[in-house]
Design goal:
InterPro entries: 6-PGluconate_DH-like_C_sf, 6PGD_dom2, Mannitol_DH, Mannitol_DH/Oxidoreductase, Mannitol_DH_C, Mannitol_DH_CS, Mannitol_DH_N, NAD(P)-bd_dom_sf. By secondary structure, the chain is an alpha/beta fold. It is built from 21 helices and 13 strands. A five-stranded parallel beta sheet has the order 6-3-2-7-8, with helices on both faces. A three-stranded mixed beta sheet has the order 5-4-11. Strand 4 and strand 5 form a beta hairpin. The structure holds D-mannonic acid (CS2).
């Protein structure tokens, strides 16, 4: 094997024969977008769309300046800087075909914890027209059961009291908007790219709640000037592995320390509501619609919830990845019936989309054997995902007298998983959740009180008082604690 060549701007011409590379003059690109949360998903989705746009038209005002707020983002910042912010997108098809592409739309990166004013100044710069976010569900800092902003969070309290030295995304955005207002500049758009229903409305709500606490007058300006478009985002993007890095080195002699792998499918449906202009992402496949609600509900309740169903049941069973789950008939059938019996009845029709086709396509996407999407990623932060992805469906079915068994077994499995932290073979599970300790403590009381887990109010709200639900749940939880072989309980729901 020849020595791999480092990916950077100077070396780009050396790769041109081997993979698609940016065709535009990156030195002319200005950062019109500041993006907080540069992870795999941002790089396979928004940065990819923007890179395509720059290749296909003159969109040099819409480059991206990445921002990390925490010290944990230092490593990625260093890698990106070393590579002139270039990275490789490895698109893996189910039939084994691979398309590689160097993405060039990110042109800078700043670390908020090192130099907060550099980040604030960049956001407040006249070139910046959009600040976009992938900060995960938990990043919005709301109580999942009440939907209200949590002002008691210590970092939020710090930011309310120290407007010049923010730590949280809310503090940074507010400080930058304040500077813009003082300078007579138009507000930027705050564009959420997270998997939250009405992500724009949610971003607006938490931003206004924060600003109200810090500066009521500014909050009013934000309320009228800042647009927060809702959007549905979709592309399955597993965590980058050492194998991805080795693949580029051995196949393309390219050394990229932080590539990103994803599936071929991509979707972005956005409400066309921007404060200060936007890129014409529609010319590279994004869809602008007046109301994104039916698209996002469909996606969150089928795809994300479907992932959680496989993630939690599969973790207890001992499966490593999503594709391994759907390769087993029991899991594939369970998933399809959950979608057909429990989710489909609570969905509204979506213009231009045949639900059966959408579900078929999802199962095919989940089955892509080259996207080895680890269940640990899927189960990450379940406490902030399940209330919207899965528990909302249970609630609606309870209200309509619909089926709840498929989803309830997942909640019971989640309790066992949180309590024991091992799969049915006794092997340790890798659980990452901001509420891990609280969930564990509640779940561990199940033997004494079968409903103990449901008393975690920020997750379950008042569900513990619903007799229909607790009846089904109690039967399931007792069965799982007697015999953790989850496949048998899935069979029992199926037949
Ligand atoms: C996954 C998502 O972690 C999860 O909850 O369901 O990351 C999923 O892969 C993306 O939303 C796909 O668009």
């Amino acid at each position: 094997m020849k020595e791999a060549i480092a990916l950077n701007q100077k070396n780009l011409p050396l790769f041109a024969e081997k993979l698609a590379c940016p065709q535009y003059d990156r030195s002319r690109v200005k950062a019109g977008i500041v993006h907080i949360g540069v992870g795999g998903f941002h790089r396979s989705h928004q940065a990819y769309y923007t890179d395509r746009l720059m290749n296909e038209s003159d969109a040099s005002d819409w480059g991206i300046c990445g921002v990390g707020l925490r010290d944990a983002d230092r490593k990625i910042g260093d890698i990106l800087e070393k590579q002139d912010y270039l990275y490789t997108l490895i698109v893996k098809h189910p039939d084994g075909r691979i398309e590689n592409r160097v993405i060039g739309s990110i042109v800078d990166f700043l670390l908020g914890c090192d130099d907060p004013s550099a980040v604030i100044d960049r956001m407040a710069h006249a070139d910046t027209k959009i600040v976009s976010l992938t900060i995960t569900e938990g990043g919005y800092n709301f109580n999942a059961a009440t939907g209200e902003f949590d002002c008691m969070n210590p970092a939020v309290k710090h930011d309310i009291a120290n407007p010049g030295h923010p730590q949280t995304v809310f503090g940074f955005l507010t400080a930058a908007l304040k500077q813009r207002r003082a300078a007579g500049l138009p507000a930027f758009t705050i564009q959420s790219c997270d998997n939250i229903q009405h992500n724009g409305n949610m971003a607006r709500k938490v931003m206004l709640a924060f600003a109200q606490e810090q500066d009521a007058d500014l909050a009013e300006w934000i309320a009228t000037e800042v647009k927060f478009p809702n959007a549905m985002v979709d592309r399955i993007t597993p965590v980058t592995t050492a194998d991805d890095i080795r693949y580029l080195e051995s196949e393309l002699e390219l050394k990229d320390e932080w590539p990103v792998t994803c599936e071929p499918f991509i979707q972005w449906v956005i409400e066309d509501s921007f404060s200060n202009g936007r890129p014409s992402w529609e010319s590279v496949g994004a869809q602008f619609v007046p109301d994104v609600t039916p698209y996002e509900t469909m996606k969150i309740r089928l795809l994300n919830a479907g992932h959680s169903v496989l993630g939690l049941l599969g973790s207890l069973h001992g499966h490593p990845t999503i594709d391994v789950c759907v390769a087993e008939t029991l899991f594939a059938t369970y998933l399809r019936r959950f979608m057909d019996f429990e989710v489909t009845p609570v969905l509204e029709p979506v213009e231009g989309i045949e639900l059966d086709d959408y579900k078929d396509c999802l199962i095919e996407r989940f089955g892509n054997p080259n996207i080895k999407d680890n269940l640990a990623r899927i189960c990450l932060e379940s406490s902030s995902k399940l209330p919207k992805f899965l528990i909302a469906t249970i609630r609606e079915n309870l209200a309509n007298g619909g089926s709840i068994e498929y989803a309830t077994l997942v909640i019971a499995a989640w309790c066992y998983y949180s309590d024991k932290g091992v799969n049915q073979h006794g092997e340790q599970l890798d659980i990452v959740d901001a509420m891990k300790a609280e969930l564990h403590q509640a779940a561990a009381a199940t033997a004494r009180d079968p409903l103990a887990f449901l008393k975690v109010e920020p997750v379950f709200g008042d569900l513990v008082y619903n007799k229909t639900f607790t009846h089904t749940y109690t039967t399931m939880i007792q069965a799982i604690y007697e015999n953790p072989k989850i496949g048998q309980h899935m069979q029992a729901v199926l037949f």
